[in-house]
From TrEMBL:
This protein's name: Unannotated protein
SUPFAM superfamilies reported in the protein's UniProt record: Periplasmic binding protein-like II
NCBIfam families on file: sfuA
Membrane-crossing segments per the record: 9-31
Record has Transmembrane helix as a keyword: yes
Molecular function per GO: thiamine binding; thiamine pyrophosphate binding
Record-linked InterPro entries: ThiB-like
Amino acid sequence: MQKSTRKKLVVGIFTGLGIAIVATVAMTFLYTPGFIRNLFLTDSKELTVVTHDSAVFPEELLAEFKAQTGITVKQVKAGDTGSMVNKLILTKDAPIGDMFYGIDSTFLQLAIDNGIYDPAGNYTDENGPVEIDYADVCINYDKLWFSSNETAPPTNIGDLTKPAYKGLTVVTNPRTSSPGLSFLAASVAVFGESGWKQYWTALKANDVKIAAGWEDAYFTEFSGSSGKGQYPIVLSYSSSPAFEIRENGESQTVSLLDACYRQTEYAGALANGKNAEGATKFIDFMLSEKFQTALPESNYVYPVREGIALPATWAEFAPAAGKTVGTTLDVAANRELWFAKWSEIFDVN
């Protein structure tokens, strides 16, 4: 064999071995969870956060986060919590954002079961997505309306079925609204598996109004808010009266704390999102003292971080419920059954 031919053969062999080694190493990395995403997608300077319609990020806090990280936060509002989860499930292969905020404990398991949250490489605690805040869902009423109409206000959720309150109550659809699902769960806890359907049947007979989401119910239909609607009883939160303080220093509204259901809201990176690293940084920021301190005024919720001082008015007008209901219910296991039976009562799908 000629020297030149032998030399070409040796070079070819070593070249082939080199290509094979490089290919093997490359394939090893490519099949490492999150490698492709982390290699190509974590340098993005924009982070898209999908939230429910009521979530608010104060501009000054977003500006501070950008100054710290160089990342601009873009918020995408996707309806009330139930609607948001449905959208995230339908778009999970090509998500509409990089992370979510505001999926609460009533809908969280549905989100996880449908694969919108991928813990591989994402910011996570021992149990999955990270707790950010909590709120107590309960009935509120308009004190001014009841005093003006010389009518005694309700004292518990059972009163809402009485003739005196016919056509006065607006609640939200549990299929699309997390407060709605929370109130449905509360009714199961209070009236039991044998009684909650009778309770909702009685509410329907008493002309309860079903709104699609909390914002519609509270800001459009409720008489005690800025919307000045026609319904003096609304499903809302124990914190809501703190935002209805009038010039006389008194709140126009009151919460009924007899049957509150506690929601915890979470944040997490979305599977197939483009900026997992940015999501991690923003969740860290959301747990910071400054962000947690802003939550009561901006989002009507209580911070999860201990030691955060609440606004002065909250002690008088927005106390968290001393005792909540439904803590032992398995909402994830029963949600679809409850939905089906509730829908039969209200003739909706």
